[in-house]
Specification:
By secondary structure, the chain is an alpha/beta fold. It has 2 domains: about 15-215 and about 415-430, Rossmann fold (3-Layer(aba) Sandwich), CATH 3.40.50.2000; about 225-410, Glycogen Phosphorylase B (Rossmann fold). The protein has helices spanning about 25-35, 35-50, 65-80, 95-105, 120-130, 155-160, 175-185, 225-235, 260-270, 290-300, 315-325, 340-350, 360-365, 380-395, 395-410, 415-430; strands at about 1-5, 55-60, 85-90, 140, 160-165, 190-195, 205-210, 245-250, 275-280, 305-310, 330, 355, 370-375. Strands 1-10-9-8-11-12-13 form a 7-stranded parallel sheet, with helices on both faces. A 6-stranded parallel sheet has the order 3-2-4-5-6-7. Strand 2, helix 3 and strand 3 form a beta-alpha-beta unit. Helix 1 (about 25-35) crosses helix 2. The longest helix has 18 residues, at about 395-410. The structure holds uridine-5'-diphosphate (UDP).
């Protein structure tokens, strides 16, 4: 077993890097992937929103699906004529520990939440309010961490500025205190965006469904040459793929992502078929649980041969792209999942993906067609082992599934569709009369 750390600089987690770095891409490149017609529609919509000031706010410049999408969506919005900006709130470890508690309870954790951080939540949101551009036409807040910013808005500004909240987690709370806290906060927004029709809460607010998306031109998803892939595999000492095919799970080290389930299923499969398991994770600035879970996983994985456990820096996009492309199967056995960009990322690379039948995953995987859905949690371990075995023993069927997966992503989960949905919402919110 190989456990590899790539340490982060000490300040990377709590002090956010200043300006985001965007790769330059142009609309013609997107047209080659998504089709001229789709881009023409987008350009038209962009013209209607020309100069509109949109500010997006989240809690991590790197790490996790929200940052992944924002890195791609910001340059595209600007390319389409909007005046788009992105700010990242900062906070102490106590703040992010508290917001991770909120996150876990909103996803259905059972127990009594520790609410001691409530004051830190409000103090941190107050401190970060200076990030809000008072001249913005529309402010889009992601997830619960910065949701409290709206409370500090001047009533005159509030009258002319629209505020949207986007939820990227699987809202399935059992805890009333935290649910009520969020409900009362979110009901002060103009609309809330969700990633699955299953999470739409019965709150007094307009709700909108927008499925997340991947960027086919990003470092995470662009085509790679064989030598680029080989260089990454060599760097991390992952070899012998023809004799021991690679099964990969890419996820933050988080209790809902199913790393332990993947390990258990792998142990069963490996008894009969040579293969290797790669668990890649990383730390996200706003997720203090990552390192603890990584350590726990390391203790287990160390005892199982042919398991590689990698803790990579959050900007390891090329590496993850290469590992996904080198894999025979992608796993995402989540117990709860807002959407699961890693599913679409795997499908885009023509890989069969085995995912937990929960949250946003069934919106992407049609069971038996472009991948497999398994029961989320412990009950799904045997199913996961069976599906892995089937795919390893039937490579032609696996290839076919992978091809269908890419088609699914092309039709439904590319950024060109996602940004269209978002701009349409901005237009409806800002100019309801048109
Ligand atoms: N990711 C990454 N490094 C990691 C783990 C995840 O770059 O170590 C990326 C992954 O490729 C995907 C995103 O982070 O683009 C995770 O998004 P997803 O929706 O799957 O889960 P989230 O972390 O937002 O819950």
């Amino acid at each position: 077993m190989k456990t590899q750390y790539a340490e982060l600089p000490a300040d990377q987690c709590l002090v956010q890097p200043g300006e985001a770095q965007f790769p330059s891409k142009n609309l013609a490149d997107y047209a080659k992937v998504a089709g001229e017609e789709k881009i023409a529609e987008l350009v038209k919509l962009g013209e209607e929103l020309k100069g509109v000031k949109v500010q997006q706010v989240n809690s991590a410049r790197l790490g996790g699906g929200v940052a992944e999408m924002l890195h791609s969506v910001l340059p595209l919005e600007n390319l389409l004529g909007l005046n788009a900006s992105w700010e990242v709130i900062t906070g102490s470890m106590e703040f992010f520990t508290y917001t991770k508690t909120i996150h876990n309870f909103l996803q259905g954790k059972i127990g009594v939440p520790d609410l001691v951080g409530t004051k830190i939540y409000w103090d941190t949101n107050k401190d970060n309010f200076k990030l809000i551009n008072q001249d913005a036409d529309l402010v889009l807040i992601h997830d619960p961490q910065p949701a409290g910013l709206i409370a500090f808005l001047d009533s005159v500004v509030r009258k002319r500025q629209k505020w949207l909240w986007r939820c990227h987690i699987q809202l399935s709370p059992r805890d009333l205190v935290i649910t009520e806290f969020l409900r009362s906060l979110i009901e002060s927004y103009d609309a809330a965006i969700f990633s699955s029709p299953k999470f739409l809460p019965a709150w007094r607010i307009a709700t909108v469904l927008i499925l997340p998306y991947i960027d086919p031109l990003s470092e995470k998803n662009r085509d790679l040459t064989e030598s680029e892939i080989r260089a990454v595999l060599d760097k991390y000492g992952i070899a012998n793929l023809d004799k021991k095919p690679l099964i990969t799970l890419v996820s933050r080290f988080d209790p809902f992502k199913g790393h332990n389930l993947a390990l258990e299923a792998f142990k069963r499969v490996r008894k009969n078929i040579p293969c290797q398991l790669l668990l890649i994770g990383g730390t996200a600035c706003d997720d203090p649980e990552n390192l603890i879970i990584f350590e726990q996983l390391g203790a287990k994985a160390r005892k199982i041969p042919d398991v590689h456990l990698l803790n990579l820096p959050p900007d390891s996009h090329l590496e993850i792209n290469a590992f996904q492309r080198a894999s025979a199967i992608i796993l995402q056995p989540s117990i709860k999942e807002g959407f699961g960009l890693t599913v679409s990322e795997g499908m885009w690379k023509e890989k069969p993906v085995i995912g937990g039948n929960t949250g946003g995953i069934p919106a992407q995987i049609v069971d038996g067609y472009n991948g497999f859905l398994i029961t989320p949690g412990q009950d799904g371990v045997a199913e996961m082992a069976e599906r892995i075995t089937y795919l390893l023993e039937h490579p032609a069927a696996a290839r076919e599934m992978g091809k269908r997966g890419k088609e699914t992503v092309k039709e439904r989960f590319l950024i060109t569709r996602g940004i269209y949905d978002e701009l349409l919402l901005f237009k409806n919110i800002l100019f309801p009369e048109n």
